[in-house]
Design a protein that fits this description.
This protein has 16 helices and no strands. The protein has 280 residues and is mainly alpha-helical. The protein is globular and about 60 Å long.
Length: 280
């Protein structure tokens, strides 16, 4: 099988989806249930705690996060219900979704292990910077910004699932890398359209690579992730390093100069490291 362009590969993806031979990634059930209940606003801390308690791993991680420097208060947290009460429903909904995301980055073969690990580590980095950057846009939720960073390259997962069985990509790391970079935003849109996320988050996976993106008067989650992404690849050989950041409106929307080194801003580096350790 030969593909003459990225579009021909995207057409192949659609054919596989239509024939039910490819399944788009879905969030774990527990994340969907908790997020839906939290977003309704009428779920009690006890009800959310009972849902979360059905997953021992997430329960342990949530209590750990509630006691982490990012969220801890004067007293320690030792139950899920106490964690929910301290953090609040909206934060818990975003956090459980973020913590559950890691389950989606588990490869089904050793061949893909390197790619999945690399994408997950990159996503953690962008996510951690996104959470810190949300401080420059008080109208945005920092934990939703963190989640936005985790989902920004979700479109790469089904590409890997398909390309593993296509020799021209499987046997050529350089071609695989090019395909991942050029096709993931289009497939990310397909995935996000299938998830019950607010539009503000859905746009991230497809729009963060549009460096002419113009949200509105105020910064949105695409702006935050776009700046976080550009900061995360600075100094590397990534093609996007050639982007003229002075023309990327997202910096100005966040009140930042285009040549800003975000990690050099007082307090930002510490926040990024704390978020990174929480997600790792």
């Amino acid at each position: 099988m030969q593909f003459t362009s990225v579009q021909s590969f995207l057409d192949h993806v659609q054919e596989e989806l239509d024939a039910n031979r490819l399944v788009l990634p879905t969030l774990p059930d527990i994340a969907l249930k908790v997020r839906d209940a939290a977003s309704r606003g009428d779920a009690s801390a006890r009800e959310l705690a009972e849902m979360i308690a059905t997953d021992a791993s997430l329960s342990t991680r949530l209590i750990y996060v509630a006691n982490s420097p990012l969220y801890r208060g004067a007293t320690g947290i030792n139950t899920i219900q106490m964690a929910v009460l301290r953090l609040g429903n909206n934060t818990v909904g975003a956090l459980i979704t973020s913590l559950a995301m890691k389950q989606m980055f588990k490869p089904k073969s050793r061949l893909l292990e390197h790619y999945f690990r690399k994408i997950w580590e990159h996503s953690i980095n962008v996510s951690s910077i996104s959470r810190a950057l949300a401080a420059f846009a008080p109208h945005l939720n920092r934990d939703e910004a963190m989640l936005a960073g985790l989902i920004h390259q979700i479109g790469k997962l089904p590409i890997l699932a398909l390309a593993e069985n296509i020799a021209e990509f499987r046997d050529s790391p350089s071609r695989m890398d090019i395909l991942l970079e050029k096709a993931h935003s289009a497939i990310g849109k397909l995935i996000m359209d299938s998830w019950n996320f607010p539009q503000a988050l859905k746009s991230v996976a497809s729009s963060y690579v549009n460096f002419r993106y113009d949200s509105a008067v105020h910064a949105d989650y695409v702006d935050v992730v776009q700046v976080a992404f550009l900061q995360s690849i600075a100094g590397s050989d990534h093609p996007a390093c050639r982007v003229d950041c002075s023309k990327v409106l997202s910096f100005a929307k966040l009140g930042l100069a285009a040549n800003t080194d975000v990690l050099e801003i007082e307090g930002i580096s510490d926040d990024v490291e704390l978020a990174r350790s929480m997600l790792s």
